Amino acid sequence: MNRIETVVSYCKDAEQASLLEAACRAALVGGSIIHKLYNTPHTIEMKGAINLVTEADVASESAIIASLNEDAPGISIMAEESAGDNPQAPTGLVWIIDPLDGTTNFAHGFPYFAVSIGLLKDGVPLVGVVYCPMQDELFAACSGTGAWLNGKPIQVTETRFLVEALVATGFPYDIHKNLDAVLTQMGTVLPKVRDIRRAGAAAVDLAFVACGRLDGLWEMDLQPWDTAAGWLLVTEAGGVVSDFSGQEYSPFIPEILAANRSLHPLLTELLG
Ligand code: IPD
Ligand code: CA
Ligand code: CA
């Protein structure tokens, strides 16, 4: 069995299994386009002072949408490059797609980026897939069933103390104007933990929390496509996802805190 057949075989609900398969296939389609374009000159447009969009974002998004429409027709789609500003939480089934999370990394040749595809039903996550094309790592989760990396089950860490924790964060695109909130949080967390990473792709950060490479992630001002898939990866891998004060999470709120069960309350005490 290949890695997609393996994860699909774990998923007990037949409809959910076919949606998981569709998401995995679409993620590989988008990822292979990004991989091919990685070592070519890029076309870069600016969405804001430091917010880029490249030919790979656009090409990946079209290919992912075509693949999902073919494998799982009739489901609504919310994808970053075509969604517009202020996306609202939809009802029913919806694919939430980041065709290239970590565009700045991609544009600079820093190989930390991914395709992220989440499926929500009335705001509840059913399927989450994050695919890192340069590493050929396919993270997948199916609600109530588990989370896997290339077909092998993954778990969050068991780290219990902040001083032993490697945590990640990210900076919003308006950081030049709104530095204070980010610096305040860094000043609060940095002296308590082993170290902090700002690697530049929230979906990958969440996948890394799910598989135990990171102990936690917190970040403000994210969009639904940054977290819809990673949210389910972390919870299915045994972790907790909330807002900064520990309240219920939704990708339609801008802030996220994800960590294992021991560290999560300690981080909410610092950030909440
Ligand atoms: C960005 C990345 C980054 C995060 C930004 C996101 P993009 O997504 O996830 O890590 O800090 O807030 O917008 O623009 O590369 O898809
Ligand atoms: Ca993103
Ligand atoms: Ca993106």
CATH class of the largest domain: Alpha Beta
> In whole angstroms, how far apart are the ends?
45 Å
**Low-confidence spans:** none
CATH level 3 topology of the largest domain: Fructose-1,6-Bisphosphatase, Chain A, domain 1
| Second-tier CATH architecture of the largest domain | 2-Layer Sandwich
CA radius of gyration is 17 Å
Superfamily (CATH H level) name of the largest domain? Fructose-1,6-Bisphosphatase, subunit A, domain 1
Strand content: 15-25%
**Count of domains:** 2
* Sheet having the most strands: 7 strands, mixed
Shape: globular
Number of helices: 9
Main β-sheet, spatial strand arrangement: 3-4-5-6-7-8-9
Number of strands: 14
Question: What is this entry, summarized?
Answer:
The protein has 272 residues and is of the alpha+beta class.
List the helices and strands and how they pair.
Elements: H1 3-10, H2 14-37, E1 44-46, E2 52-54, H3 55-71, E3 76-79, H4 80-83, E4 93-101, H5 103-108, E5 114-121, E6 124-132, E7 137-142, E8 146-149, E9 152-153, E10 166-169, H6 179-189, E11 195-197, H7 202-210, E12 216-219, H8 224-236, E13 240-242, E14 256-259, H9 263-271
Parallel strand pairs: 3-4, 10-11, 10-12
Antiparallel strand pairs: 1-2, 4-5, 5-6, 6-7, 7-8, 8-9, 12-14, 13-14
Bound molecules: D-MYO-inositol-1-phosphate (IPD) and calcium ion (2 copies).
Residues 57, 80, 98, 100-101, 103 line the site of one calcium ion.
